[in-house]
Amino acid sequence: MKIRIKGDSLRLRLMQDEVTQLMVDGRVMDCIRFGRLPGDELGYSLVRNDTEQICAIYSGNRIEIQVPDKIITAWAKSEQVSIEEVTKNGGKDGLHILIEKDFACLTDRPNEDESQAFPNPNSYC
User: Fold this and answer.
1) What mean pLDDT comes out for the span 34-56?
2) Three-state secondary structure call for residue 73
3) For 22-29, what is the mean pLDDT?
4) Using CA atoms, how far apart are residues 112 and 81, in angstroms rounded to an integer?
5) What domains are defined for the chain?
6) Would you say 25 and 110 are in contact if contact means Cβ atoms under 8 Å apart?
């Protein structure tokens, strides 16, 4: 799972196997390590559960995006590309959350494993 953070915007991109894991296990998670000490990392996860609406929780160097099961299931089992929500966060414009299926790039990218990427709809091959 890829994460992109810019201001009050959070974007997650999932490969096919991660969407499958989300449906089976109810959770996909990863982290980025900044140093060698325990706790020198930022964890992030996408969770499918019985919440009423999409929400983001930040606690203990962890970001957790919770999405209602019915929304995740509809997205995972369809051609729908993204789930998008703006949640209240105390800021003027709220927190923009975007969850997307990760498509294969149209140009070759060295050192990029796209074996589990979704087929790009703009690919003519």
Assistant:
1) 91
2) helix
3) 96
4) 21
5) 2-101 (3.30.1360)
6) no
